Fold these 4 entries.
Entry 1:
Amino acid sequence: MAGFNGTRDFGFLADGGSGGGGTSPTLLIIQCDSGTNSSRRCGNNNCASGIYSTAFGRCNTSNGCYSTISGGFCNISSGIQTTISGGYKNTSSGIKSSIVGGQLNVASGDYTSIGGGFQNVASCSSSTISGGYFNTSCGLNSFVGGGINNIASGTNAAVLGGQSNTASGISSSAMGCCVVNSCDYSFMSNCLRACNIFGATSLCANAGGTIVPSTSDCRLKENIESYELGLKELNCLQPRTYTWNEKSGNNTCHKQVGFIAQEVKEVVPESVFVTESGYYGFDSNKLMPLLTNAIKELSCEVSCLKKIIYFD
């Protein structure tokens, strides 16, 4: 076989001997390229126009410097040192971005990666999507593990899976269904279960943010004083019935019983806190000392009444 270097390399396959009686030789196109040292060695209608670019498969375009398409159909590898392993109509345009497979995925950020799936977009530097459908990883160094219609938009944010979840806080994580986590350095899910906590009636978070059983050891406490609130303050509290609205993200169908945080704040301010999103929260455990004092006061009054009755 003979050939020469240029925009098209070719040679002849002789089906028979040359000369009289031999079958006419067949022309075989080996590669077609337009970039310096680029190559296209297998498949149909591929284009390798970038410097040292390579394209295999069918109708693929590798026009980025040092870009590679290993197979698939109608893929585009246009960024520097980008890679597409296969799939259909995937686009890898960020520097050193890569797509393993799938369909209609776009890795447009530098150093981004998409493992597969359908219509996923990794648009910010070092963002990663493992797979799934319609997921977006647009935060710096963000990650989506899979699922459907998830968004990781915060720096170092991660959506581990599920559907329609959003992690927008710095180093935030989300998992489940329709979870929106905008709090920095936090994790949110529809249901959180701990398998290493036994015999605990209540839970709290320690200084490192780890969920642990709440403790009440005097060796861990300072500035211990008596608590004075009691029956008078208890009479000021007003129990309410209510239903959650759509904004709360809770079940809106069932009637609830409890307190209003703003009302409790006026009586027992230490039992009320403000969440990262700016809403008031209420810790009912903080009412236990008040209830204890109220019962003690009532008990004292009952004792006094008994003495009066018995005296009479």
Entry 2:
Amino acid sequence: MYTHVLKNEKVGGKNIAEVLIENGINPSLVMVRVNGAVILRDQYEFFIVPEGAEVKVYPFVGGG
């Protein structure tokens, strides 16, 4: 599994959806943590990333 850690200078003051799209990441295929807290997918357009936040993006992994 790989994780994207997005740099602060690119993400502060934007919503999660904007950050993901600007970084070429499909919002429907990932889970996002901001400063360790999981952000629910239905909040991606509303949650504004604070300045200085650590944003980690994890892909969904299927299995069975």
Entry 3:
Amino acid sequence: MITEPLRHIFSQLEQLPEEAQNRLATIIQEHLEEDEEQEWAGIVGKPRVRDALRRLAAEARQQER
């Protein structure tokens, strides 16, 4: 679902030249990727998650042998 303020902004962006739209799309995409990376870092940074990942990695190494 898109909020009304965001819908309004998108309607204004449609009036921009294609090059400007593409630049803005790139900026938005980079921002979203940074947010996702920070979210994953927060998840993986938790001690119990790190411990679980270490156990899974050890199990995977054992299965390779």
Entry 4:
Amino acid sequence: MAPKNTSAARIDPGGYAGSSPRPSQLPGGTGQPTNLNLELTDLCNIKCRMCGQADNSKVHNLQPNSFMTWEVWKASIDSLTSYPDEVSLCPHWLGEPMLHPEFDRFVRYAFEQNEGNRLFRHFKLHTNGSLLKDRSIDTLLDCANMDSMAEDTFRFIHFSVDAWTPQVYYDLKKFDYGARVYRNIIRLLERRTERGLRWPYVTNAFIVMPENQHEAGWYLDYWKRVFERLGIDFEVFYDWPSQLVDNLYFRRLHQADQAAADRLHRIVLDRLGILPLDAAGDFVEDSF
């Protein structure tokens, strides 16, 4: 494991550094990739204090009409056959995608139709990890390792964890799911290892805040031990992960007083030995 200063590694529009967007496939294309967030639901099952959705009562009102229908998902996926440019697909924007009662069916359909990457070139998943059960783990591993498309199609799952102790997790997210999230992520890594698979990689994200900054070292040490126990190579990043690798991502908080958030972020990075306080560097924070 080696901490990475990613300030010099520019991330291209298609994803991690080193990924080259292919030319447009059909007439009328721009030749540039499109980042498509096809959101399964805008609902969420936790209330992260750093998320604008947390105070929206509608986001936590689980009604039957709050989820994308099968007909809309199927039509949207099928329509990509005629889309002229390369697509990077994500079933998430503001909500928790795994809340969808047919999450597995929807994801499998997208990948089963994507032979030869005819619909999308890349896929990613953002989740808080609290709903990741064994069935969904196998769905994600199966889809990420299909031999009918480019091996790096499903490149990573981004887990929003942000805490080490159950109390801090609860303080930040208002639900006592911390231990469950840790178990689920570890089970995914174990299952991927047991099956001898490479994809998808895992990003374990920790947004640095006053409430959790004292836990950053414990978080780093714990996940280091997990990766080492499983024989998994990993990296540590302070900006958006710039390599195809399992990683820990110590992310800065976005808030009104951005200077204070940036200062705390740099102090924690220095404390962890990731980035000295006097080191220069711009942030990329590109989500693809």
